[in-house]
């Protein structure tokens, strides 16, 4: 960001459209990245585009409420807006689609031998629905434990416990079906 950013923040707060255009030019890649990370497997470009537009509209509408000191605070402020708006869109998408394991395409995993993707989906379907969501968020969407805990309104330790128990259950199921682990500890 340039030193004249403070000027654009002030102009944005005053409702100047050129300031909004400048902010969009500077922050669009960052905002899109946040939205893609949060929305995850629902990555429908239409939903991502709507969410990004909604985020910039929120920034525009709430600009006068920004009370930070310069570029760093402004960036944190818009990232927070982006994150919470994207979470809202994610929740709406989950409710619309009732995100099921059938909609997920799983890349091959070096941590276990599974002949077909269907086998992995069958294994995951044996977990409780909350544990299924946690596994999808952790291993398919690359969320960390804190992000999962925040989105599912759980504590970080509860998320970690569910991951641990889920791994044990999946390992047991795989070994009972004659599978083995290529890299111990990666599931």
From TrEMBL:
Gene3D superfamilies per record: 1.10.1740.10, Winged helix-like DNA-binding domain superfamily/Winged helix DNA-binding domain (1.10.10.10)
Segments forming domain RNA polymerase sigma-70 region: 24-92
Protein's name according to its UniProt entry: DNA-directed RNA polymerase sigma-70 factor
Any single Gene Ontology cellular-component annotation: DNA-directed RNA polymerase complex
Pfam families cross-referenced by the UniProt entry: Sigma70_r2, Sigma70_r4_2
InterPro entries in the record: RNA_pol_sigma-70-like, RNA_pol_sigma-70_dom, RNA_pol_sigma70_r2, RNA_pol_sigma70_r4_t2, RNA_pol_sigma_r2, RNA_pol_sigma_r3/r4-like, WH-like_DNA-bd_sf
Keywords: DNA-binding, DNA-directed RNA polymerase, Sigma factor, Transcription, Transcription regulation
Family membership noted in the UniProt record: Belongs to the sigma-70 factor family. ECF subfamily.
Domain RNA polymerase sigma factor 70 region 4 type intervals: 119-170
GO terms assigned for molecular function: DNA binding; sigma factor activity
The keyword NADP is assigned to this record: no
One BP term from GO: DNA-templated transcription initiation
